[in-house]
TrEMBL record:
Keywords: DNA-binding. Residues 104-140 are annotated as: Disordered. This is Single-stranded DNA-binding protein. The lineage of its organism: Bacteria, Candidatus Azamiibacteriota. Homotetramer. One of its GO terms (molecular function) is single-stranded DNA binding. InterPro entries: NA-bd_OB-fold, Primosome_PriB/ssb, ssDNA-bd. Pfam families: SSB (PF00436). GO terms for biological process: DNA replication. One of its GO terms (cellular component) is nucleoid. It comes from the Bacteria.
Amino acid sequence: MNLNKAMILGNLTRDPESRTTPSGQTVTSFSIATNRFFVDQQKQKQQKVEFHNIVAWGRLGEICAQYLKRGQLVFVEGRIETRSWEGTDGIKKFRTEIVAEGMQMGPKVGGGGTHQASPAHEEEPASFNDDEIEVKDIPF
């Protein structure tokens, strides 16, 4: 048995871009940044940001284009796909994406507005102790 499942919880790095294929199907693409906080060998707090390319097709793509905005917290569930093409320079190019199969928007912040903080500069958690996580430290 095989499994190809991706679950990403992060902030949109840009507004979604929507287009229609020649066959009339909607496809929407956007990027999500996820942050990982850790303590290195020198006991210094570190942060690593990963950027994930997301593609949503059909009705899900229409909903993403309509409701998602840059900076907003979003949960995307889908599968990982790598596509390839030949560039104008004749070199074969590759892109790994998450093809969305489901999406949940995060909470709105500040009385109905969306969260506009830069994903790479999010507030770091209050504690780096792996043994102790408090509910008040969870950012959502």
